[in-house]
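Entry for the shared binder. Reason: the reviewer on the internal report wants the predicted structure included alongside the sequence.
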Amino acid sequence: MSQHHLSPYNTEATVVLRENGKTREKTLTMGTLNPQVKAVEYAVRGPIVTKAGDIERGLQQGQKHPFTEVIKANIGDSHAMGQKPITFLRQVVALCSFPELLDSSSFPEDAKQRARRILQGCGGQSLGSYSASQGVDCIRQDVAVYIEQRDKGVPADWDNIYLTTGASDGIVSILKMLVSGQGRSRSGVMIPIPQYPLYSAAISEMEAVQINYYLDEDNCWALDINELHRAYQAAKEHCHPRVICIINPGNPTGQVQSKKCIEEVLHFAYEENLFVMSDEVYQDNVYSPDCQFHSFKKVLYEMGPEYFNTVELASFHSTSKGYSGECGFRGGYMEVLNLDLEVKAQLVKLLSIRLCPPVSGQAAMDVIVNPPLPHEPSYLQFHKEKSAVLGALAEKAQMTEQILNTVPGIKCNPVQGAMYAFPQKQVFKFVSLLQSLGMSPDMMYCLRLLEETGICLVPGSGFGQREGTYHFRMTILPTTEKLKVLLEKLRDFHIKFLKEYAPLEEPKRSEDDTQEALKQFR
């Protein structure tokens, strides 16, 4: 149908017909849209996930597929995957939201004490009021105490704490402060590859220069200092590198960086005068007995005053990950060290534009940094729930690695921490075919997997990978039983896929290997 004959109520038309017979074009079209918005890509909620939603709705309407449910392993959304909320956290937020419950005997006194303290810090003693742009003062103070205890006495000043809308809000705000210049003086941002697509998306939106440094897949995704130097020197030819971003524990790669590695990064940043952004939202998610979380701040302190008093460092944490998995509250914080005082005032101004983070999310963040103590009535239940969540994640991390490594043509590094595996798949004949057709091998692999099995994963290309390698990211968040189903379906699909596109060379790993691995987790 011609656009001039569309219904006057068709709001999707680019050109609409007025009653007087004249036409009026829309102001905002793909032609006039900000090109930086078009450049943004966010694979975690990309076309595969959109397709999964369509299939899910089709199943609910009775459409036939070779499976009965969609298993979403594309995003780190713990509660959507069946994880139960931490009781104490929900109690405190409930009390803050509906203070009349403070008179109820159904709530423990330690939850009431925390709720009263938070409410006293809110305007009108209501969670519905705006807070200061940096967040509620008493919650910022609790964050500082938490950091000081976590880092074994390294001092923390609550004036350096900013509560945020999840960690993402803080990360984007700091990047906005750092991006400036034109041409060869344009700010360059060093990010790990593979990376969490928030970084590449924000860099695209801000028209900054993305500087890739590659993690060492053959060494369990370790960060190689020589690779940092290579990336930095190459980038200096066309931009001004100003900031280095680190995700520890890693997303999507699941590695936990060693203290020595962190020292090398901080020394590198000190020598090259780089701002350091340390994404530490998975600090509670460490599963390997050989690994330990080291905060960048603590390591910086231990390197001595020359480093601790000069290197500009922003560290980020969130309610969304860890053992709480409270993604929907959008709670988080950042601690920013060694910021110029005038720049600090500019940061507060920038944060004030969004008024304040959700105050309910701030309350949730307070519970994470100020949990029940051993002498308090809620401690035993809280400790039991926290241990159960982290224990189950540790078991699923091990199970995912072991089972994937029984599948011919798939190689998976140990999932030392975080919530994801990022296995490499070998699909060479398939790659050659699709490249000749101008299609993305990763995307088509994940699309076929979804359509044939109902499993929703994210193509590795959405996170970045070395040229000639192909991966996918999957979460370890589904329940243990559902994760076993997912891994078995994935194995069967991949072997069928290999038979179709590449001959198997008598693989040492077989279905028997997979079943043997599964037995350990029954």
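Summary line for the report: The radius of gyration is 25 Å.
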